[in-house]
Write a structure and sequence with these properties.
Blueprint: H1 2-11, H2 18-42, H3 46-72, H4 83-94, H5 98-123, H6 130-149
Helix pairs in contact: 2-3, 2-4, 2-5, 3-6, 4-5, 5-6
């Protein structure tokens, strides 16, 4: 019996609290803004520069929406990166192969953001944040498509 409950727990998606959603989404937005700013300075590939401009605008928008909705719930977005996003940004800053590293990281983070927002839009516990997540999901789908089309 115990193994059956462990198996069902492993299969069922874990619901994020509103606070956890805001913290994770704001870390992603902050990583995306900082990496896009870095890419606009360091990227040699014009496709990466164009994607960085798009990502910067998109994440400034999703960040503003998250901040507005979060304030209504007394949940302020974080002004710091989580350890994984900080490690990625540090690696991006230190790499000699900026364009390939930036592109690889974007593939990871955009998909991470898409999963986060999609899941929260469907099952999130906050009626205030679910529409924010749904909008961010559509922005991330567009970003993922732009990332795929720019190569």
């Amino acid at each position: 019996m115990q193994s059956a409950s462990v198996a069902s727990t492993a299969i069922a998606p874990m619901a994020l609290s509103a606070a956890a959603y805001v913290a994770t989404a704001s870390s992603i937005d902050l990583y995306e803004v900082k990496s896009a700013q870095m890419a606009m300075e360091r990227a040699q590939d014009p496709a990466n520069r164009a994607f960085a401009e798009r990502a910067l605008r998109a994440h400034q928008g999703t960040s503003a929406q998250l901040s507005f909705a979060g304030r209504r719930l007394n949940l302020l977005p974080t002004a710091t990166l989580d350890p994984n996003h900080q490690a990625m940004l540090d690696a991006l800053s230190a790499t000699a192969d900026f364009d390939n590293t930036y592109r690889a990281q974007q593939n990871i983070v955009v998909q991470e953001a898409l999963r986060l927002h999609s899941s929260y839009a469907k099952t999130g516990d906050s009626p205030t944040l679910r529409p924010v997540a749904a909008n961010a999901e559509s922005v991330m789908r567009a970003n993922l498509q732009a990332l795929r089309n720019s190569r």
